[in-house]
Design goal:
144 residues; mainly alpha; 434 Repressor (Amino-terminal Domain); 2 domains; 8 helices; 0% strand; elongated
């Protein structure tokens, strides 16, 4: 596959995936004309934008490296295994509330990045099953 063009690799991937170019365009959040340009080799490999590459590859159900370079991925796991786990909104809400409570009790404010970091840690601790009271104590200490 390495000797084929970007357009031929995309065409093959679309056929293999059983989707249409319009489906790929819709999935990638782009236009039919963009996909057509890719298929007609009007897009040079060195000019491909990463974000568009990943979106089109996802739509055509092909590894982005294979689409761009014609080389199979060197990653042992399939791309689907890299999908993030869904955030449990109830736990996220509790994590935010715990951080807000810790800051309110201390009478402080922190920059948004620090607030986000504390919330992330609180969320992860809740995900691991730590009790809310213990998470709150940890957050208070971390932000102290």
């Amino acid at each position: 596959m390495a000797r084929t063009t970007l357009g031929r690799r995309l065409e093959t991937a679309i056929g293999t995936a059983g989707v249409s170019p319009a489906d790929v365009a819709r999935s990638a959040g782009t236009t039919d004309a963009t996909i057509s340009n890719w298929l007609k080799d009007k897009v040079q490999v060195e000019n491909v934008k990463a974000l568009m590459l990943f979106r089109i590859a996802d739509g055509a159900k092909i590894d982005p490296r294979e689409l761009l370079l014609g080389e199979p991925s060197r990653v042992a796991e399939p791309a689907a295994s890299y999908e993030s786990h869904p955030v449990q909104s109830d736990r996220l809400t509790i994590a935010v509330q715990l951080v807000q409570e810790a800051l309110a009790e201390a009478g402080r404010q922190v920059p948004p990045a620090r607030f986000a970091e504390a919330t992330k840690i609180a969320y992860e601790l809740l995900e691991e099953g730590l009790q809310q009271a213990k998470v709150l104590r940890f957050v208070k200490t971390a932000l102290g």
